[in-house]
Amino acid sequence: MEDKTILRDIEKLVNQEHELLGKASQGGLDDEERAQLHAIEVHLDQCWDLLRQRRARREFGLNPDDAQTRNEGTVEHYLQ
Fold first, then answer.
1. What is the pLDDT of residues 27-41, one digit of tens each?
2. Number of domains forming the structure of the chain
3. Does residue 25 form part of some domain?
4. pTM for the predicted model, two decimal places
């Protein structure tokens, strides 16, 4: 997957997230929408992580295509 593709995915997911957050602020979300929002947030974190991996690999002369999407447990429990 190329960086441009990842960035397009991020843009699409951010738009979906904003739509759901707007709906949440105007009356709330049902269980299905809350689950959808969570899934979007996780997928966004995975996309950003993959993009960072690709950029780091490129910076250090490694093949960015060897970067892999990490699981939810990894991307959701980073220490910051």
1. 889 999 999 999 999
2. 1
3. yes
4. 0.89
